[in-house]
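Supplementary notes (optional reading)

For those who missed the lab, this is the record we used. Protein: Hotdog fold thioesterase. Length: 135 residues.
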Amino acid sequence: MKSPREIVDLMMHNDAFSKWMKIEVVAVAEGTCTLQMRVQPDMLNGFFITHGGISYSFSDSALAFASNSRGYKCVSIETSISHVRPTKEGDILTAVAVEKHRGKTTGIYEVTVTNQEHKTISLFKGIVHIAQETW
């Protein structure tokens, strides 16, 4: 079976959206993943703050990498996010995904996104389906 890093590298290779967001994989281990990215000008909404879909997508990528890191293919079946504070162009965001439960067919993960001042930006929860297919 592939290592968590090999799995995430393979996923990133095929993930055009995460590449567009310029996501950097900082750390990955079984059940957890840490990512970083910088808010780009084309990620802002009409209020000149980061579009909520960016922090959502950033969190979703962290969920995907953390849940797949154990070697079994996983896809999300339910997710939610709470936006705690806005971000702006140039902010550096860090997403930390942590496994809270791992069963035979489902897993539950929490992702916390913080900014460069270590202030919480968003809180994300994701439930994944765990397939029997391995990487």
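If you only remember one thing from this example: The chain has a mean pLDDT of 98.
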